[in-house]
Design brief:
Blueprint: H1 2-35, H2 47-54, H3 60-71, H4 83-90, H5 96-107, H6 119-126
Helix pairs in contact: 1-2, 1-3, 2-4, 3-4, 3-5, 4-6, 5-6
């Protein structure tokens, strides 16, 4: 019985370590892209903003995709949020399209089917 519980403990510890390692890899990948200069394919965020955006990122690609859409100018099909609001909206997301869609609905005027929230309220509502 003792061997059985030891085996289960080793197995569970391995799973936790692997999942933790994958999450760390996602955070590092996200941070590297977020802090990288835009001429090199990055977002050009300050170290602090990149850290805030990417800390604990479950899926780097989703966090970065969300940020790009949130910060992009509306004429280029973005939301036009400030950098800080885009970071707040997108940090920790695992499904960027759902978060962006939520924000669009929350911020849209009620006469057009939205909730009519302010930008800040919409960010808080959808994150």
């Amino acid at each position: 019985m003792k061997v059985f519980f030891s085996a289960i403990f080793v197995f569970l510890t391995s799973i936790i370590f692997i999942n933790s390692s994958q999450a760390n890899d996602q955070s590092v990948s996200c941070y590297q892209t977020a802090w990288e200069h835009p001429e090199k394919g990055g977002l050009g965020l300050t170290r602090g903003m990149a850290l805030d955006l990417c800390k604990g990122a479950p899926v780097a690609k989703e966090v970065l995709q969300c940020y790009r859409k949130a910060w992009e100018h509306p004429e280029k099909d973005g939301l036009g949020l400030s950098r800080g609001m885009a970071v707040d909206l997108c940090k920790g997301v695992s499904q960027s399209k759902k978060v962006i869609s939520c924000y669009q609905t929350a911020w849209e005027h009620p006469e057009k089917g939205g909730l009519g929230l302010t930008r800040g309220m919409a960010v808080d509502f959808c994150k």
